[in-house]
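Recall the central idea of this unit: under ordinary conditions, the amino acid sequence of a chain determines the structure it adopts. In this exercise we apply that idea directly, starting from the sequence alone.
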Amino acid sequence: MAQLREGVRALTERIPAFDVAAMCHGDPLTTGGRRSVRLRVDCDVPRRPGIHRGYLLAPPYCPDMTSKLAVVGAGGAGAAAAYALRDSAVDVTVFEKSRGVCGRAATRRKDDCTYEHGANYLKADDERVADLVTEELSTDGLVDVDAPIYAFERDGDIGEGRDSDDHKWTYETGITQLAKRLLAATDATVRNGVRVETLDRDVDGWRIFDDNHNDHGHYDALLLTPPAPQTADLLGEAAWDHDDCRSLRQTVASVPYRTVISGMLHYPFELDVPWYAAVNTDKDHDIGWLAREECKPGHVPDGESLLLVQMNEPWSVANYDAHPDRLLDEIAQRTARLLNDDRLADPDWTDHQHWRYAQPEETADREALAPAADHDLYFAGDWVAEEPRLHAAIRNGLETGAVLADEL
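Accordingly, the structure predicted from this sequence is:
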């Protein structure tokens, strides 16, 4: 539809008094096998042969016309959507508030250690995503965590748990390689360090403004991929007075999220345990997840240990504003008790990350989001996907990108 409007705009440049903003009523049709649009003229125009109040047939769709898409967020879903559009006539610009990409699938480095402090790895539960990672993208540095995932309950007894044969993929240089490789396969422009604050709906698309009130231009369509609460905030601040805006915001804001504090604890010795990670299955322990980053090839030097400890939501919410020193001391003490190893109470270095919107507890009602497409607006992410997991967010981004390739 955006390409068709461009044809109409070109026509109106030859008729100065004709106001394209006054003719928003249109329906696509086909003429001679080429897409055109019939638009109703609701304004008086200078008399020209064939131009009068009524209907106007705009120029046919030209396949070399380029639509512009703004993607807010360079996480897994946003990167996957851009990848799905790599061969289309769509000019993609990705706005990302941070310096890096891949969102909550995040990687840090310290003292020769590489560690994931958000999403820990990529599962192979989706065949399309598995093919993407192992067949389409480069597999250089792709690693699979072989050690199993154990489980524990409130009493802290750790025992065998999940199937150890499941793939747990990451990269030697970190999980952020996933988004980096997706985006590297495209011609998309990635603007890091840009915090989108205001969305301005105009007659045939959107304008993007950042938190410094800089205007980043006009786009034919907009794809929002931040966590649902942040997406709801963008809709709430949007310059868009429409009932659909209010109903969409309500739908998006209704998605509940889990808050998680991650603590990273490093030790100059190895741990003698048979598992990669242990998960709290009854959700009654202060620690929700504990993982050994040294089980990931290339992440931790030999003879060292680096534990990623993700606290459960009640504990994370209660301690969210605590001083980092006290916070990490509490995490180390609880880790030592869980593993029955007093040495773990005194790590030689630590790190932490607060995830206010770590993971959706459930996903959005897709049917309630459908009206957004009527306004050149789309959503993607783990809160839109069939389940709130990284592989599902990637699949959702690929699917949304395919839809945009057809629509634009």
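The longest strand covers residues 349-360.
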